[in-house]
Amino acid sequence: MSYIGTNDKQAQAMLDKIGVKSIDELFAPVPKEIQLTELLNLPAALDDISLQRHLRELASKNNNTEDNISFLGAGSYDHYIPPVVDDLANQSAFVTAYTPYQAEASQGALQAFYEYQTLICQITAMDVCNSSMYEAGSALAEAVLLARDVTSASKVIVTENVHPEYRSVLATYLSSLPMTIETIPRANGVTDMKMLGEKLDDDVAAVIIQQPDFLGLINQLDKIADIVRDKKALLIVIADPISLGLLKPPGSFDVDIVIGEGQPLGIPQSFGGPYLGLFAAKEKYLRRLPGRLVGATVDEQGNRAYCLTLQTREQHIRRERATSNICSNEGLLAIRAAIYLSAIGKSGLKQIANLCFQKAHYLANKISQLDGYELKFDKPFFKEFVIVCKKHSPAEIIEFARKAGIFAGVDLGRWYPELSDCLLIAVTEKRTKEQIDNFVEVLGQIK
Amino acid sequence: MNAQKEEKLIFEQSIEGACAANLPACDVPEIKPDYSIPPQLIAETAPELPEVTESQLTRHFTHLANRMMSVDANFYPLGSCTMKYNPKINEWAAGLEGFTNLHPYQHIDDVQGALELMYNLRKYLEEIAGLAEVSLSPAAGAHGELTSVMVIRGYYNDTDRQRDRILIPDSAHGTNPASCALCGMHTTVVKSTPEGLVDLADLAEKVDEKTAAMMITNPNTLGLFDSNITEIARILHDNGAQLYLDGANMNAIIGRVRPGDFGVDIMHYNLHKTFATPHGCGGPGAGPIAVAEHLREYLPVPQVERKDDKFILDYARKKSIGQVRTFYGQFSVLVRAYTYIRALGAKGIKQVCENAVLNANYLAKCLQTHYTLPYNLPCMHEFVISADRQKSRGVRALDIAKRLLDYGIHPPTMYFPLIVPECIMVEPTETETLETLDYFIETMQKIANEVISQPDLLHSAPLTMPVRRVDEVRAARQLDLRWKKEK
After folding, report:
1. Which of A3, A112, A358 is closest, CB to CB, to B28?
2. Do A407 and B380 count as a contact with CB atoms less than 8 A apart?
3. What value does the mean pLDDT take over residues B209-230?
4. Out of A35, B10, B130, B165, which residue is the most buried by the measure of CB atoms under 10 Å away?
């Protein structure tokens, strides 16, 4: 099998037409001494049936979140994906097209991107949104590069409760640039306002807050915005899109840039990717936005039409002066997110957010009544919370629950030594009371 | 395409109270959110999202899909993008529940199948590149390119800090200089010869003790394999610099030539081009990078490794540039590429490149009677023609592109590379049939005749798409980037 479109006889006729005797002659520009004389060392080709068997075997070596009950979060969530979202997003006309450079042949994707941009602006209450980034970590790095471009300042303030992987990606992106990252430790679980105020001088390009933060906690975004307002620094908020069915949108607090992980918007967890970086901003940063933008316009007969626009911002024109090199990124997942948000709609987003909130609080309350566990922070949270495990290590609890078909949570000791006795637990709308009660029972059984 | 003249926006179809998902009622005792959350942080009203029924939603996004050209429906010879057919078994594999429903922080013993797949794909890509080690982390080609420049930067931070210049050919993609600038590196342009290859004299003059690397695409964006490639590598290596390969055009050489064998130190792949993973209207793609022995320890973390009989994610690499993305890579894209390689085997992979090159040469040969072929054949997997003859009659490459739409063909890449006037860059790929190739030739000839007989027709093309020519100038001048409710 090689998915080749022509047979040997046709290939010979084509060679005749070209005027060469063999395929080898077509490779004449490639020096003989660098051409392989043998086949690559790869496993033998598999027929379709063997290939399916092989992949099924590989997939079945994994223990998946559908066959188990998952309380894992930390940046990837087991939210409900309506089948209609899969069906519509998997249409081959979307799957097998490329970036919509030819507007007349790509109106469907362009309109979907325009709707996506609108939907993300609606949930974040921001002015403008691009048509996708890779994922949250690199979107955060791009937001900081934008802030650097605007302010010419050299420091970034980030709180310790921003996802450790996002901070790690940011550090990588900034490592070759004259920029430093200052990390503010938490005070009583959340952002230390006093230290934030003290650190916020004229050389700060951006303040980065995650809301709800990596530990699930809700920060006083209104107060943080008050501290950052009138300072040179831009306020960047990393938002969980599902939380915006319950929480006031970042745009209502004078936030400059909102980025986020779009995975909760109908995208499978897929072992961490591909995901979708959300990127929305105030109008005044429009011409500095990384990534692609779709605008509404008309065709030459005055009919409504859409196209890629402001491409002069992009690297093929700005070249060395460009602040981003991003080209194609997550188009199909932006379309998927647009379909998802349209499917659940106004009432659905509110309902899902409320279900997450209620079920997370129900579970937190139940666990804190168990002997050997308590809630780590006495702070408001949304769908995720931290428990202290007093009798057993998080690793022991994870192992015990796993044998009962439950993915108990994420061991925080990996990133935070002071939280090495803590588990981060997430609850989505998919968890039932029965599953939650069962989890509590299992936690109580650990001897 | 079977599309109406206009499709209303989803927001304009809203029916109060409609919802396309049947969500559960709350089965636990409820508390008031303001019981714990400060009231000033709670939304008073829900975001103004559209409200539609499932059938409305389905009609809408089906109508939008009908307003698209795609590889599944159309010949799509977009140069440098390798729009080959994407086998359905790859989609089937990526959709397996054991792959889609995996959380990145599951217990390591619960994700052994995923890690095994990643590890083996890593090994296959190392073999195909002829290089020492592959990282699967980067999310796209441009991201792989950026990661590569970071790796080069990391290497010289350790060994020779003054090297902060990167050489790029004048035919280079615009991401090259942008990627360098993001890493605090500067770029110097190296000229091309009239034959479209790297000018060795200019290279020798520009390379010096501050040169970190040269970024090269080979075959280049003109579809030409640079026969001097080993000499280019020698000049760079003698000066202590690295040779970086933009792997956009790997479809021309996979299975027949390995970058590691012609002196490449570091390169990126585009799995969505060479390894048949779908382009999805612009992503998700994947841009793994491959490096030679001396650059291995600078690769991003985590790396998937095999330790005894177990697969692990290794974060403990002291000299690593760090993480370039959240989690581990574009996993479901990796599943598709893995499936593709396993379906083909070594022989099949070699046939891919040979037939891609055959198809391109066949098209180029047949098109040269009506269009200018600025460079001699043979070409590799793609080639450029110039519409300079047509331009002298007042018809531009853009008009030809738009007219192709009326014949059901997605246009080739236009006006790139910049060094060829009225450039049309054609990449047919190996998956097309002779019938399709001949249809393209006939159509291009027909259009060449239309240029003479009815030039106005070309200026007003396309006539059969859901919209006529789109006013891109107005889009940029009267910016409208989101729908707003009329007050």
Report:
1. A358
2. no
3. 95
4. B10
Per-residue pLDDT of A94-123, as tens digits, reads 999 999 999 999 999 999 999 999 999 999
Pick the CATH number of B90-343 from 1.10.3720.10, 3.90.1720.10, 3.40.1400.10, 3.40.640.10: 3.40.640.10
Strand partners, B169: B190
Residues of chain B with CATH 3.40.640.10: 90-343
Q: Tokens 């019981």 map to which residue?
A: B35
Contact B472 A297 (CB under 8 A): yes
- Nearest of B221, B266, B258 to residue B413 by alpha carbon: B221
More confident residue, A1 or A174: A174
Length reported for chain B: 487
User: Range(s) for CATH 3.90.1150.10 in chain B?
Assistant: 347-474
Task: Assign B1 a pLDDT band (cuts: 50, 70, 90).
Answer: low
Nearest CB partner across the interface for A123, out of B10, B47, B432:
B47
Is the confidence at residue A318, as pLDDT, over 70? no
Would you call A309 and B475 a contact, using CB atoms and an 8 Å cutoff? yes
> Quick check: helix, strand or coil at residue A186?
strand
In angstroms, the CA B229 to CA B387 distance is 30
Distance from CA of A231 to the nearest CA of B (A): 22
When pLDDT is cut at 50, 70 and 90, the band that residue B147 belongs to is very high
Q: Given CA atoms B82, B84, B86, B87 in this order, what sign does their dihedral have?
A: negative
Which CATH superfamily hosts domain B347-474?
Answer: Aspartate Aminotransferase, domain 1 (3.90.1150.10)
- Give the closest-approach CA distance of A21 to chain B in angstroms: 12
Q: Does A251 touch chain B (CB under 8 A)?
A: no
Q: Which residue of A25, A32, A96, A221 is the best one to mutate when testing the B interface, meaning the one whose CB has the most B CBs within 10 A?
A: A96
What value, to the nearest 5°, has the Cα angle with vertex A295 and ends A292 and A298?
145
Q: Which residues of B touch A118 (CB under 8 A)?
A: 9, 11, 482-483
Residues in A touching B476 (Cβ below 8 Å): 295, 309-310, 312
Nearest to B69 by CA among A100, A295, A306, A307: A100
Strand partners, B211: B165
Domain extent listing, chain A: 69-80+345-445, 83-341
Q: ipTM of this predicted complex?
A: 0.97
Strands A277-281 and A293-298, sheet pairing: unpaired
CATH top-level class of A69-80+345-445: alpha beta
CATH domain A83-341 topology: Aspartate Aminotransferase; domain 2 (3.40.640)
The predicted-structure confidence for A387-402, as pLDDT tens digits, reads as follows 999 999 999 999 999 9
pLDDT band at A313 (very low <50, low <70, confident <90, very high): low
Task: Supply the mean pLDDT for chain B.
Answer: 96
With a cut of 60, say whether residue B465 has pLDDT above it. yes
Closest-CA distance of chain A to residue B453, Å: 23
Task: Note every long-range contact of B393-399, with CB atoms under 8 Å and residues 24 or more positions apart, other chains counting.
Answer: B393/B451, B393/B452, B393/B455, B394/B455, B395/B451, B395/B455, B395/B458, B395/B459, B396/B422, B397/B422, B397/B423, B397/B424, B399/B458, B399/B459, B399/B461
**A40: nearest CA partner in chain B:** B346
- Choose among B256, B324, B348: nearest Cβ to A35: B256
- Indicate yes or no: CB of B21 within 8 angstroms of CB of A221: no
Instruction: Write out pLDDT tens, residues B12-59.
Output: 999 999 999 999 999 999 999 998 999 999 999 999 999 999 999 999
What is the per-residue pLDDT across B236-276, written as a single tens digit (0 to 9) for each? 999 999 999 999 999 999 999 999 999 999 999 999 999 99
Q: Kindly determine whether residue B89 and residue A51, on different chains, have CB atoms separated by under 8 Å.
A: yes
